[in-house]
Amino acid sequence: MERTKSVGVREPNIGMERGIALVRPTSHEGRVGEARGLEVPERHKLNLLPRSKPIEAAEPSPVYVEEKQVRV
User: Fold this and answer.
1) DSSP structure class, residue 32
2) Nearest to residue 36, comparing CAs of 47, 28, 45, 48?
3) How far apart are CA 68 and CA 12, in angstroms?
4) Among 9, 14, 15, 30, which is most buried by a count of CB atoms within 10 Å?
């Protein structure tokens, strides 16, 4: 039984069979208008607030106990 080809899966040697070299286009990898070689500005440091005390619950949380099977 022959498997059907999945959509979006490219065979790696398809271009070589036709005599065409596969060339990947140059990508800017999400960088727009950025010149290479420039220094990256230092990020601002976050001013973090101290932790507050945890809120105490009015009722204690229930404790779950496994029920034991008692044989008579």
Assistant:
1) -
2) 28
3) 61
4) 15
Q: Would you state the pLDDT for residue 51? A: 77
Cα–Cα distances (Å) from 64 to 11, 21, 41, 57, 67, in that order, read 56, 66, 53, 17, 9
Query: What whole-number distance in Å separates Cα of residue 36 and Cα of residue 28?
Result: 11
Can you tell me the distance from the alpha carbon of 20 to that of 13, in angstroms, rounded to the nearest whole number? 10
Q: In angstroms, rounded to a whole number, what is the distance separating the alpha carbons of residues 57 and 52? A: 15
Q: How far is CA 11 from CA 5, 18, 24, 25, 32, in A?
A: 10, 13, 15, 18, 31
pTM (2 d.p.): 0.15
Residues 43-68 pLDDT 10s: 888 888 887 777 676 666 667 766 66
